[in-house]
Amino acid sequence: MGENMSRSSADRSLHGEEAESRAAVEPIAALVAVLAVGAALGLYVVALDDAEPDQARPTAEATLDQVEASVTTGGVVEPERLRGVGGFRDVATVAIEADGERWTVRLGGETTTPETARNTDAVAVAERPVTVSVGPGRNVRGTLRAVVYR
């Protein structure tokens, strides 16, 4: 009797009855799975696009780099050279602070002013430590700061 049972199981396997029931996938379930994967990939692409920095907006770091190159000689920032800095399209305020003194200059066009840029998204700030010349042969540590109004 045990042989008959194993033969009938084997006969069913050979005829494909058992194989068909295990390998069959409902077409609707497969379509739902494909749609779910497609939606997940779409959301991922949107998230990556939002995470990319916006290159069209001015950054305070880029402004700070340009200003520092203009006012630095031999690795020392000369505050008097702030007056000669120009060529900025966006409104920015650049300040040098050292030894209790402060030098400030306003750069750029008049499309946006500090008074009209009230929300925090409209302002980018960057600063870095620099060596500042405060007199003939007298250099002290100071801060170069750029505030860009978008």
Describe this structure in words.
This protein has two domains: 50 residues, no CATH class; 90 residues. It has four helices and six strands; from the N terminus they run ααααββββββ. The strands form two sheets. The protein has a four-stranded antiparallel sheet, with helices on one face. A two-stranded antiparallel ribbon has the order 1-2. It is rod-shaped, with a radius of gyration of 34 Å.
Secondary structure layout:
Layout: H1 2-15, H2 17-23, H3 27-51, H4 60-71, E1 72-73, E2 76-77, E3 91-98, E4 101-107, E5 123-135, E6 138-149
Antiparallel strand pairs: 1-2, 3-4, 3-6, 5-6
Observed structural traits:
150 residues; alpha+beta; 29% strand; four-stranded antiparallel sheet; two-stranded antiparallel sheet; 39% helix; 4 helices; rod-shaped
Largest sheet, order of strands side by side? 4-3-6-5
Secondary-structure class: alpha+beta
Low-confidence segments, ≥5 residues, pLDDT <50?
Answer: 111-118
- Rg over C-alpha atoms, rounded to the nearest angstrom: 34 Å
Helix content: 25-40%
